[in-house]
Amino acid sequence: MTDYLVYDVFTDRPFGGNPLAIIPNAAELPEERLQRIAREFNFSETVFLYPPEGEGVAKVRIFTPMSEVPFAGHPVIGTVVMLGEAGLGPDFVLELGVGPMAVRVEDGHSSFENRVPLEHVATPDKALVARALGTPEATILGEPVMAGVGLPFTFTELVDRAALSDLVPDTSAFREGATRYPSGLDFAQCAYTRVDGRVHMRMFAPLDNVPEDPATGSAAAALGALLCREAGGPVSLTIHQGEDMGRPSVIGVEAEPGRVTVSGRAIRVMEGKLVI
User: Fold this and answer.
1) Which of the residues 29, 91, 255, 271 could staple to 224 if both were Cys, CB 3.0 to 4.6 A apart?
2) Is residue 1 scored above 90 in pLDDT?
3) How far apart are CA 115 and CA 106, in angstroms?
4) Is the distance from CB of 135 to CB of 204 less than 8 angstroms?
5) Are 184 and 69 in contact (CB under 8 A)?
């Protein structure tokens, strides 16, 4: 039997934030079972930990219900908190699919530093993005941008908080977008708006079995890098996500040219054993 843990990430209270399953000792699991296990948990991501191959304390593999991804934010935050509870810290390195990543943990709060260069993948058609999000084109400010720092998303700024709340995604438009703009996730959409110094964000990836994500650290990192480039200098963001689906999350982002730090809290809510 193999132990597992479940954390709620980017929250300080149970049943908020984004749930994450962690398999602390995955070395003895057959490779062909990893994807099946992730699909069984059916969270936006599941983490499998292995002995390190280089400078890190562990090798981290991350699976959505549909595929393995090289990087995702809330799995890193939750994993770092778990390792901190096991006695590691405050500073160490994890080995991810995007390379070694510096992390920090202290008293249930963790952060990671992403130095992956911002990649501008495409400028998706505004009309198609509007259909995917289920919003009139008039609610979109500027042009959508597909970009990432290890995992690409399409970022679209909306006119106000009401427009963000009113989104009704159209899966057929996601299918068209995934064909026209192939990327690591299938046309994942990250819509946001800026209100009184805060960023409110929603992320949809229905083709990857994530109808809506309560907290997306990899998207938060990429958005920080985008807004840093837009501002021409460092930016500090507090991103609120998950409120429209009843799982409020808070993500801290500090971005400067060439580096983004994402931070948040996580809390253990379940533990058990895989009996397969």
Assistant:
1) 255
2) no
3) 21
4) no
5) yes
For residues 48 and 62, give the distance between their C-alpha atoms in angstroms, rounded to a whole number.
6
Any residues with CB less than 8 A from the CB of 49 and at least 6 apart, and which? 22, 23, 24, 25, 26, 58, 59, 60, 61, 79
Beta bridge partners of 263: 111, 252
| pTM, full prediction | 0.93
What is the distance between the alpha carbons of residues 146 and 15, in angstroms, rounded to a whole number? 31
pLDDT score, position 276: 81
What is the spatial distance between Cα 230 and Cα 227, in angstroms, rounded to a whole number? 5
Residue appearing with tokens 């995007």: 98
pLDDT, one tens digit per residue, over 152-185 is: 999 999 999 999 999 999 999 999 999 999 987 8
Catalytic residue among 45, 95, 157, 243: 45
CA distance 200 to 107: 26
Confirm if 161 and 195 have CB atoms less than 8 A apart: yes
CA-closest candidate to residue 262, choices 98, 64, 114: 114
List CB contacts of 275: < 8 A, sequence separation 6 or more. Answer: 1
Residue 161 to residue 210: CA distance in whole angstroms? 22
Is 45 an active-site residue? yes
